[in-house]
Structure formats: C-alpha cells, structure tokens
Amino acid sequence: MESTRRWQPRKTARMADYYIKEAITFIEQNYTRDFSIEDIAATLGIDRGYFGKLFKRATGQSPQQFLIQYRLIKAANLLKTTDLSIREVASSVGYENQLHFSRAFRKMYEVSPREYKKALPNDPESA
User: Fold this and answer.
1) Hey, CA dihedral for 20, 51, 46, 29, is it positive or negative?
2) CA angle, corner 61, sides to 20 and 57, nearest 5?
C-alpha cells in the first residue's frame, strides 16, 4: 500500500504535464478558430476549473491569458510579414470582432495594430 502512495504523486504530475502539453498543442492548432477554454477542458476530458488551476500553476498564466498572448504574437507576425488588412489579420488569429482585437493588441503592445504596422521599416504604406 505504501508504494502506491509514493507512486501516485508522480503519476499525477505526469498527467498534469500531459494535460498542459495537450492544451498548448490544441491552442497552436486551433488559435484561428473561435473556441473557449471550456472547449479545451472538454477535449482533455477534465473539469474547466481544474484545468485552469493546472495551467496557471504550470505556465504562470491563465489559459485565457495564454491564448490571447499566443494569438497576438501570431497577429504581430502577420502584420510584419504580410500585406493583410487589420481586419484580415484579426480574423486570421481568431478575432471576428476587429475592435476586440485592436483593444487586446494595444493592451499587449501599447500601440494599435495600425500604428504597429506603420512603424515597420518595410511597410509599403509608410513609404
């Protein structure tokens, strides 16, 4: 019986690592779609509250914060490397509402997406 008690925490830790890895993979593969944190937890087959605690403990961020940051990093890259409009970039990273996208972008980068794009050295619009 004692050996089972010693083994259990390691199994739990491995399961937590598995859940986090699978959640991050889910985000990387689906960030362009509209989904909720509940959808991730359901895909993993665990409770949303439990998932949130595991994720925050492992990454230092809530799943929602991680998702927003991931989408905005992808958006910044699209603004740098493509000629997509702000609306197209927003839609490409899972934001159907351009205003919500612009607010989140400004909060993270401290400039609007348009200002960010204009400040880039190779942007044809700034020439």
Assistant:
1) negative
2) 55
Which DSSP symbol is given to 124?
G
CA distances from 106 to 1, 33, 50, 89, 109 (A): 55, 21, 31, 14, 5
Q: What is the pTM of this model?
A: 0.83
Q: How far apart are the first and last CA of the chain?
A: 73
Helices 48-59 and 37-44, interaxial angle, to 10°?
Answer: 100
For the stretch 86-127, pLDDT in tens is 999 999 999 999 999 999 999 999 999 999 999 987 645 544
Quick check: 72 and 105 in contact, CB under 8 A?
yes
The distance between the two most distant Cα atoms of the chain, rounded to a whole number of Å, is 73
